[in-house]
C-alpha cells in the first residue's frame, strides 16, 4: 500500500484506489506508526500519544480496538494488508508499504529535486500539528523541503510559488525568508523583495522584539545594491543527462578557476569542452554569464557580450561602457568556442579593468595571454568511455571495442550510441570499420579529429533525404532557433527536426534548438556541397524579417514579444542589413536600450544604395532618436532633425524625435512638434500614438510647471494605455503624474505611482526604467528627511544605471546623491557630483539641467560662505531659466541669489519675487523643499 504524510494523510492501494481511514484516533494511530519508520511503538506510548493526560477508562482495550479498526480498514481495501500492522514484545509496528516521505528523502539525496517537490502536498503530518510524536519528524521533513528549495534556487530555477505558500505557514523562519527574497529578486520583483524584508522586520520586532539576523540583513543589502550574484543571469543550458568520466577534470578546473582569473579549456571539437565549462558554471557561486561565440563574427562580439551581460550599449564606443559596467561586479564569464576569433585584447582589457571578473574560455587553442591557465580536456579514458556509451545506449555487453575505435570522443560516443540498438554491436562495428578504411587516406590532422568526422559522416549516411536536407539547412541559424524557424527556413515538416533531436544531431533545451559546433560546421560544408547556401540564407533572412515585422510590441503582447525577440537576437545579427529589417527592429532595440546596436545597424542600412526614400527617411529618424543623449553623435541627431523637413505629416517621426529629446531640446520647438504629432495620430485614429504623444506633451509641460496640463495629458494617456494593456505606455504616462505629485508635495501619491512603475518595469526587464523610478523613490526619501534611505535608493539606482550603461539614468541618480550630500553638509561630495554631470549636459545640450546644476553649485558656494561665486553661478542659472521660460527654474535661481546677496532688503525682495512667481504658476514651494529658502530668510533677518 501507499501512505502519504507530506500533507493530509493519504492512503492508496497498489492499484491507486483511495482508502478512507475512519475515526480521528485511528488516523492518528496510523500516523504515529508511520512517524516511527518501522520501529515498534509500545502500547503505553501509543496511549499517551492518542489521549494524552486523559486516557479512556480501559485504555489498553480501547487501543486494541483502534488497532483492529485500522487493520480491518486496510484489509478491506487490499486483501492481506492487515498483516502490515504487527504486534510483538516491544509494541506495534507498521511493517511495510511505500511512504511518500521515504521517496521524498531519496529524491532530495539524489538531486531529483523537482520530483521531490512534486510529492509535497503541504506541511508534513498536517493532520497532527499539535502531537509531540510527529514534531521531530515534521521538523526534519520541513527542513529537508526547504533544503530542496534552496538547492533549486541556487541552480537558478523558479521556486517562488513554493516559497510564497510556505511563508504563510512559517512567517518567522528567516532561512525560508532568505530563499523567498532571492526568488522574488530573480523573478524581476526587486521592489517586492525589499517590501517582504521590511514586513519581516516588522513582524520580528512585534513578535520577538528582534531584528533580522546578519545573513538576512546582508542579503537585504545585496538586493538594494542589485548585486549581480543574486540574479545569476539567464539560466545556463540545462544538461540532458549526467556528466560521466569528468570528475578529475572537473576538480582540476575548479581548483584552477579558484586560483586564477583566466582559465582556458583546450581540446578538439566534440571532446566535451563546452559541457565541462557549463558544469563548472552551474557549480560556481557568483553571477555566471555565457557568451556563445560559434555563430559570431569579429564585429559582433561586443554587442553579443553586452547582451549576455544584460547591458545597454547606447554609446557609439561600446567597450568603455562595458568596462565601466563590469568594474564593480563579481562575475564568471564563460566564453565558448573562441578559436575563430581574435579575443586576446578584449579579454585582457576586461580582466585589467574588472578585478571581480573571472573568465572561463573554451577553444581549440590557447588565447595566448599572460597569466592564462590552460587545461587540456582529453578524450575519455577507456573505462569512462564504456560507462558513457552504456549509459546512453542501454547496451552493456561487447561495447569496449566500439569505444576504443571512437578514441573516447564524447560526441562520437553519443552519436554512435543512438544507433547501436538498431544495428546491434556487430553491425555498428562493421560500419565503423568501413568508414575508418575510407578515411585512412584523408586529410592530415589528429586522428581523433578525423574519427569525429567519420562518426558524423556515418550518422549522415544513416539519415533520410529529408533529415539530411533539414540538417544542412539548419547551419544558417545563429545560436538557438525555434521549431517553427527550422521548419520555415528548411521548408520541411517539424517532425524532421524532432527526428534529428532523437538522433543526437540537434540539441534541445527549453523549447529551443541548436547545433553542436562540430555538427554545425559539418552541416555548412554539406550545404555548400549542395549549392544551397545563398537560397537558404535568403529564406533565413526572409523568415526573421517577417518575424520582426509581426512582433506586437504595443499592447498586451509586449512582454511575450520582447522575450521572443531576445531569444532571436543572434539570428537577427547575422542577417544582411536592410531598411525593412532595421525599421522593424528599431522599437525593440529602443525598448531594450540597445542604442549602439541600433545605430550601427541603422547606419549600415541607410548607407545601402538604391533604397526606397520613405523607408530611408524613417530609418534616419530612428537613428536620430537613438542618438538623442549621445555626446559623440550630435551630427547624426542634427541630420535627423533635418530629415523632419521631408517627412510631411508623419506623426510617428514627429513624436519619436520629440520624445527622445524632450529634456534637452528647445521647449517651444518641441511643443510645436508634439502638437503636430497628436493631430496626426488623431486624424488616423491611432490610439497608441495619441497616448504616447500625450505622455510626451505632459513631460514638456514640466518646464512650465503647468500641473493641470501635466495631469490632464498624463491621465488621458494612462487611460488609453490601460485600454491597450501596454505596460511600457503605463510607465511613460505615470512619469509626469509622479512629477506633478512631487511638485505639489503629495509624496504619498508619488510613492504609489513609483512603486507600481517599478513593478511594471521589472516585469518587462526594463532595468533602466527601474533605475529611474528607484531614484525617484530616493527623491521622495530626501524630501521627507530620510537621508540614509535617500542615499541607499540613489546608490542602488546608480549601480543599476551603470550596469545598463545609460548615462541619463546615471546622471539622474548621481544628481540625487549630490542633492542629499549638499543637504547633509557634505559639500565636497556634492560639488564633485554636480561638476561631473555639468560637463556631460553641456555636451548633449541639456539646457534645463545645466541651469539646475549651476544653481546647485551656487548653493554649495553659498553654504561655504563664498557669496561672490554663489551669485555668479545663480545668475548663470537664472539666465538659462529665462532662456527656456521655466518659471520654477527662474524662482529657484532667484531664491539662490537671495541667499547669496549681502543686502538683507534685496534678499527679501528676491524671495518675495520667487514666491509670487511660484504662486502665479500654481505650485508654491512645498514645506519639504524650503531647505534653502528658510536659510536665506534667517540670514536676511539676522542682518536686518
Q: What features would you describe in this structure?
A:
The structure is a single chain. By secondary structure, the chain is mainly alpha-helical. It is built from 46 helices and 12 strands. The strands form 4 sheets. A 5-stranded parallel beta sheet has the order 7-8-9-6-10, sandwiched between helices. It has a 3-stranded mixed beta sheet with strand order 2-1-5. Strand 8 (331-336), helix 16 and strand 9 form a beta-alpha-beta unit. The longest helix is centred in the middle third of the chain and has 30 residues, at 410-439. It is globular. Residues 434-450 and 631-637 have low confidence and may be disordered.
Summarize this, please?
This protein has 944 residues and is mainly α. The protein is 65% helix and 5% strand.
Amino acid at each position: 500500500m501507499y501512505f502519504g504524510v507530506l500533507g493530509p494523510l493519504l492512503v492508496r492501494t497498489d492499484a491507486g484506489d483511495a482508502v478512507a481511514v475512519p475515526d480521528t484516533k485511528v488516523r492518528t494511530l496510523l500516523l504515529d506508526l508511520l512517524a516511527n519508520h518501522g520501529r515498534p511503538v509500545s502500547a503505553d506510548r501509543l496511549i499517551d500519544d492518542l489521549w494524552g493526560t486523559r486516557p479512556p477508562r480501559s485504555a489498553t482495550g480501547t487501543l486494541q480496538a483502534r488497532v483492529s479498526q485500522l487493520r480491518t480498514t486496510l484489509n478491506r481495501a487490499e486483501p492481506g494488508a492487515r498483516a502490515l500492522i504487527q504486534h510483538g514484545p516491544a509494541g506495534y509496528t507498521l511493517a511495510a508499504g511505500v511512504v511518500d516521505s521515504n521517496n521524498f528523502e531519496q529524491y532530495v539525496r539524489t538531486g531529483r529535486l523537482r520530483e521531490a517537490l512534486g510529492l509535497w502536498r503541504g506541511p508534513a503530518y498536517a493532520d497532527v500539528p499539535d502531537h509531540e510524536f510527529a514534531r521531530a519528524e515534521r521538523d526534519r521533513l520541513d527542513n529537508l523541503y526547504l533544503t530542496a528549495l534552496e538547492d533549486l534556487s541556487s541552480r537558478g530555477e523558479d521556486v517562488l510559488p513554493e516559497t510564497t505558500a510556505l511563508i504563510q505557514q512559517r512567517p518567522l523562519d528567516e532561512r525560508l525568508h532568505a530563499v523567498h527574497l532571492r526568488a522574488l529578486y530573480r523573478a524581476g520583483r526587486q521592489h517586492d523583495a525589499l517590501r517582504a524584508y521590511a514586513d519581516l522586520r516588522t513582524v520580528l520586532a512585534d513578535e520577538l522584539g528582534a531584528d533580522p539576523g546578519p545573513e538576512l540583513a546582508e542579503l537585504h543589502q545585496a538586493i538594494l545594491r542589485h548585486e549581480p550574484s543574486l540574479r545569476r543571469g539567464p539560466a545556463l543550458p540545462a544538461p540532458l543527462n549526467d556528466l560521466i568520466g569528468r570528475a578529475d577534470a572537473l576538480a582540476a578546473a575548479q581548483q584552477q578557476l579558484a586560483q586564477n582569473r583566466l582559465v582556458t579549456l583546450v581540446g578538439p571539437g566534440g571532446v566535451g569542452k563546452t559541457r565541462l565549462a557549463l558544469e563548472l558554471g552551474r557549480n560556481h557561486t557568483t553571477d555566471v554569464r555565457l557568451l556563445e561565440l560559434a555563430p559570431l563574427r569579429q564585429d559582433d562580439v561586443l554587442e553579443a557580450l553586452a547582451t549576455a551581460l544584460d547591458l545597454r550599449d547606447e554609446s557609439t564606443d561600446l567597450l568603455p561602457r562595458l568596462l565601466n559596467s563590469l568594474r564593480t561586479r563579481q562575475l564568471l564569464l564563460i566564453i565558448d568556442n573562441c578559436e575563430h576569433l581574435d579575443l586576446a585584447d578584449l579579454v585582457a582589457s576586461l580582466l585589467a579593468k574588472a578585478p571581480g571578473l573571472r573568465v572561463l574560455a573554451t577553444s581549440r587553442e590557447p588565447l595566448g595571454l599572460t597569466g592564462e591557465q590552460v587545461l587540456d580536456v582529453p578524450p575519455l579514458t577507456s573505462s569512462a568511455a564504456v560507462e558513457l556509451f552504456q549509459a546512453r545506449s542501454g547496451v552493456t555487453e561487447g561495447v569496449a571495442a566500439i569505444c576504443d575505435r571512437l578514441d573516447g570522443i564524447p560526441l562520437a560516443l553519443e552519436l554512435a550510441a543512438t544507433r547501436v540498438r538498431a544495428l546491434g554491436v556487430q553491425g555498428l562495428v562493421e560500419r565503423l570499420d568501413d568508414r575508418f578504411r575510407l578515411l585512412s587516406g584523408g586529410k592530415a590532422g589528429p586522428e581523433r579529429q578525423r574519427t569525429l568526422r567519420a562518426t558524423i559522416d556515418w550518422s549522415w549516411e544513416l539519415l533520410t533525404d529529408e533529415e539530411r536536407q533539414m540538417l544542412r539547412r539548419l547551419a544558417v541559424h545563429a545560436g538557438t532557433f525555434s521549431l517553427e524557424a527550422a521548419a520555415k527556413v528548411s521548408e520541411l515538416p517539424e517532425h524532421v527536426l524532432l527526428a534529428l533531436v532523437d538522433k543526437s544531431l540537434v540539441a534541445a533545451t527549453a523549447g529551443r534548438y541548436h547545433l553542436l559546433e562540430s555538427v554545425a560546421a559539418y552541416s555548412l560544408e554539406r550545404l555548400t556541397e549542395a549549392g544551397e547556401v545563398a537560397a537558404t540564407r535568403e529564406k533565413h533572412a526572409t523568415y526573421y524579417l517577417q518575424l520582426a515585422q509581426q512582433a506586437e510590441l504595443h499592447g498586451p503582447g509586449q512582454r511575450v514579444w520582447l522575450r521572443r525577440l531576445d531569444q532571436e537576437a543572434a539570428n537577427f545579427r547575422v542577417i544582411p542589413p536592410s531598411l525593412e529589417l532595421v525599421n522593424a527592429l528599431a522599437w525593440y532595440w529602443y525598448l531594450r536600450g540597445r542604442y549602439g546596436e541600433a545605430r550601427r545597424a541603422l547606419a549600415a542600412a541607410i548607407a545601402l544604395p538604391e533604397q526606397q526614400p520613405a523607408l530611408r527617411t524613417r530609418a534616419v529618424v530612428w537613428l536620430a532618436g537613438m542618438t538623442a543623449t549621445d555626446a559623440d553623435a550630435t551630427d547624426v541627431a542634427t541630420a535627423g532633425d533635418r530629415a523632419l523637413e521631408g517627412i510631411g505629416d508623419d506623426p510617428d517621426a514627429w513624436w519619436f524625435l520629440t520624445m527622445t529629446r524632450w529634456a534637452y531640446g528647445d521647449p517651444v520647438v518641441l511643443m510645436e512638434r508634439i502638437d503636430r504629432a497628436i493631430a496626426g495620430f488623431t486624424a488616423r485614429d491611432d490610439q497608441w500614438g495619441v497616448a504616447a504623444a500625450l505622455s510626451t506633451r505632459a513631460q514638456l509641460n514640466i518646464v512650465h510647471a503647468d500641473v493641470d496640463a501635466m495631469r490632464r495629458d498624463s491621465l488621458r494617456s494612462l487611460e488609453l494605455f490601460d485600454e491597450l494593456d501596454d505596460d511600457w505606455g503605463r510607465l511613460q504616462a505615470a512619469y509626469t503624474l509622479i512629477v506633478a505629485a512631487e511638485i505639489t508635495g503629495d509624496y504619498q501619491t508619488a510613492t504609489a505611482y513609483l512603486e507600481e512603475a517599478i513593478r511594471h518595469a521589472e516585469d518587462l526587464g526594463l532595468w533602466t526604467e527601474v533605475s529611474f523610478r528607484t531614484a525617484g523613490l530616493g527623491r521622495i526619501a530626501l524630501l521627507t528627511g530620510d537621508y540614509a534611505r535617500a542615499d541607499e535608493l540613489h546608490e542602488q539606482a546608480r549601480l543599476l544605471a551603470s550596469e545598463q550603461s545609460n548615462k541619463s539614468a546615471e546622471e539622474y541618480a548621481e544628481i540625487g546623491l549630490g542633492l542629499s550630500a549638499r543637504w547633509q553638509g557634505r559639500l565636497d561630495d556634492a560639488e564633485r557630483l554636480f561638476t561631473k554631470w555639468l560637463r556631460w549636459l553641456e555636451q548633449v545640450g541639456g539646457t534645463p539641467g545645466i541651469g539646475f546644476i549651476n544653481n546647485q553649485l551656487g548653493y554649495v558656494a553659498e553654504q561655504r560662505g563664498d557669496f561672490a561665486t554663489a551669485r555668479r553661478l545663480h545668475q548663470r542659472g537664472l539666465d538659462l531659466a529665462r532662456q527656456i521660460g521655466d518659471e520654477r527654474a527662474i524662482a529657484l535661481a532667484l531664491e539662490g541669489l537671495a541667499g547669496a546677496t549681502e543686502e538683507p532688503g534685496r534678499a527679501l525682495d528676491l524671495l518675495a519675487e520667487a514666491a509670487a512667481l511660484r504662486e502665479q504658476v500654481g505650485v508654491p514651494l512645498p514645506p519639504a523643499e524650503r531647505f534653502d529658502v528658510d536659510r536665506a530668510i534667517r540670514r536676511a533677518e539676522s542682518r536686518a
